Amino acid sequence: MIQDHLNELRAKLEQSENITEELKAKLLDHVTAIENETSVRGDMTEESEDSSTSSNRSTHAGNLLSTVEELEASHPELVGVINRIAVTLSNMGI
């Protein structure tokens, strides 16, 4: 489910002509980081998660949210997709 949302977000970003290449690359990096974190999370049990993994996940989420705020006014549909991903991650405990 989360991968479907991430794929949708990646496709929208790649097709977007209204954002700079720099911002597009930054957002795609965030998508990749989230994919990596969810992959790691799927391979771990609650007991094996350490504080650095939790901290990295929080850092990625914080970075993503600050980038999303930059886009909110000019790209509401894209922000909606990102918000759905954030809610899904939150519901998963990520």
Brief digest:
The protein has 94 residues and is mainly α. It has four helices and no strands.
The total tally of domains equals 1
Amino-to-carboxy terminus distance: 14 Å
Percent of residues in β-strands: under 5%
Low-confidence stretches: none
Q: How many β strands by DSSP?
A: 0
One letter per element, helices H and strands E, the order comes to: HHHH
| Biggest sheet features | none
Helical residues, percent: over 70%
Radius of gyration: 13 Å
What would you call the structural class? mainly alpha
Mean pLDDT across every amino acid position: 76
| Number of helices, counting only DSSP H or I runs of 4 residues or more | 4
* Global shape: globular
Structural features, described:
There is one protein chain. The protein has one domain. 79% of the residues lie in helices and 0% in strands. The chain is built from 4 helices and no strands. It has helices spanning 2-15, 21-43, 51-71, 76-91. Helix 2 runs antiparallel to helix 3.
Summarize this structure as a short list of keywords or feature phrases:
94 residues, mainly alpha
What is the topological layout?
Elements: H1 2-15, H2 21-43, H3 51-71, H4 76-91
Helix pairs in contact: 1-2, 1-4, 2-3, 3-4
